[in-house]
Design brief:
- It is globular, with a radius of gyration of 19 Å.
- It folds into two domains: about 140 residues, 3-Layer(aba) Sandwich (Rossmann fold), CATH 3.40.50; about 160 residues, Lactate dehydrogenase/glycoside hydrolase, family 4, C-terminal (L-2-Hydroxyisocaproate Dehydrogenase, Chain A, domain 2), CATH 3.90.110.
- The chain contains nine helices and 14 strands.
- Helix 3 links the parallel strand 4 and strand 5.
- It is about 45% helix and about 20% strand.
- The strands form four sheets. The protein has a six-stranded parallel sheet, sandwiched between helices. The protein has a three-stranded antiparallel sheet with strand order 7-10-11, covered by helices on one side. A three-stranded antiparallel sheet has the order 12-13-14.
- Helix 3 runs parallel beside helix 4.
- The mean pLDDT is about 95.
- It is α/β, with parallel strands linked by helices and about 325 residues long.
- The structure holds nicotinamide-adenine-dinucleotide and (2S)-2-hydroxybutanedioic acid (LMR).
- (2S)-2-hydroxybutanedioic acid (LMR) binds next to helix 7.
- The site of nicotinamide-adenine-dinucleotide (NAD) has 35 residues, from helix 1 and helix 3.
- Keywords: NAD, Oxidoreductase, Tricarboxylic acid cycle.
Length: about 325
């Protein structure tokens, strides 16, 4: 009998633990949860398995400190690494997290040569760069999660502003997952109606600013770490799009090689996700201002990746 496809989650902390829970609740995958801390992935996996009879799923969830159980994974969600604290930027996590992601990717690809790597660890775009470099995988199989989350924040803010259901709001946030991200109000709609017809320019500008600072807002409130409910939901949404071959266009961090006029840089762009991973970058028509903002964001990502390259030499 064919088993269920295996999804590995590396890092059993806030994002990884919650992502594993969401995946278990799908009742479609086998889930392997990996962490370096002894007992934590095992304990969380056992806890999730025990929730199954109540929640109505029979997912096999394995927690481990090693990689043997990850063999043959279809997708690996990489959340291992440190999170920022109030007053820090994501970029300050670079040196520590690059080393962690480098070692994790080596372990994963040794046992799952066909795996699709879905990066979550920050600074996100630079971690996709590390994973690409270490794995030497085709760019379609190394993808970063950020745009779904940033767009979800914008959607939630607009839904609150207009008192409409969040799922009715469509938004698209491109660019790097940092201060230079590029929310696109022109591609933001409520049941097909342009948001600029519904919200004043001042209020919309405030929503764009709050979206850009959405991660820091939560870090400031939590104090001990960063957001994880929306991030884990966003990562699992991407896993579903890939595993169910949905061909859905989702903002994702991928290597651009000419798309949007951007050469050799990892950046958030609309991507068709399917069983092949990042199957196609979809080019939206951008105004000169939007294009300039995307280029500025690409410049910031390039600088960060150059720092990683120096660290990894
Ligand atoms: N891309 C995004 O939009 C986004 C959103 C939220 C969080 N993040 C990032 O995700 C990362 C994780 O966040 P979190 O809130 O889950 O942090 P967390 O501290 O709760 O969990 C991180 C886990 O990684 C584990 N870990 C560390 N080194 C490891 C290794 N070598 N192998 C396996 N596991 C290891 C830790 O033991 C810990 O359990 C952070 O870098 C954070 O900034 C990114
Ligand atoms: O803000 C952070 O550090 C975590 C994550 O990137 C987020 O946007 O929530």
């Amino acid at each position: 009998m064919m088993g269920r496809p295996k999804i590995t989650v590396v890092g059993a902390g806030n994002v990884g633990g919650t992502a594993a829970q969401r995946l278990a609740e799908r009742d479609q995958y086998d889930v392997v949860l990996v962490d370096i801390v002894e007992g934590v992935p095992q304990g969380k996996a056992l806890d999730m398995a025990q929730a199954g009879p109540v929640c109505g799923y029979s997912t096999r969830v394995v927690g481990t400190n090693g990689y043997e159980e990850t063999a043959g994974s279809s997708v690996a969600v990489i959340t291992s690494g440190i999170a920022r604290k109030p007053g820090m930027s994501r970029d300050e996590l670079l040196a520590t997290n690059a080393k962690i992601v480098q070692s994790v990717v080596k372990e994963l690809i040794a046992r799952s040569p066909e795996v699709i790597l879905l990066l979550v660890t920050n600074p996100l775009d630079a971690m996709v760069h590390v994973a690409l470099k270490v794995s030497k995988f085709p760019k379609s199989r190394v993808i970063g999660m950020a745009g779904v989350l940033d767009s979800a924040r914008m959607r939630a803010f607009i839904a609150h502003e207009l008192n409409v259901p969040g799922p009715d709001v469509e938004a698209m946030v491109l660019g790097g997952h940092g201060d230079t991200m590029v929310p696109l109000p022109r591609y933001t709609t409520v049941k097909g109606k342009p948001v600029s017809d519904l919200i004043s320019k001042d209020r919309l500008d405030a929503i764009v600013k709050r979206t850009r600072e959405g991660g820091a807002e939560i870090v400031g409130l939590l104090k001990t770490g960063s957001a994880f409910y929306a991030p884990s939901a966003s990562a699992v949404d991407m896993v579903d799009a890939i595993m169910q071959d949905q061909k859905r266009v989702v903002p994702s961090a991928v290597l651009c090689e000419g798309e949007y006029g951007l050469k050799n840089v990892i950046i958030g762009v609309p991507v068709k996700l399917g069983r092949g991973g990042a199957e196609q970058v979809i080019e939206y028509e951008l105004t000169a201002g939007e294009r300039a903002a995307l280029e500025a964001s690409a410049t910031a990502v390039r600088e960060l990746c150059a720092n990683v390259d120096r660290l990894m030499m």
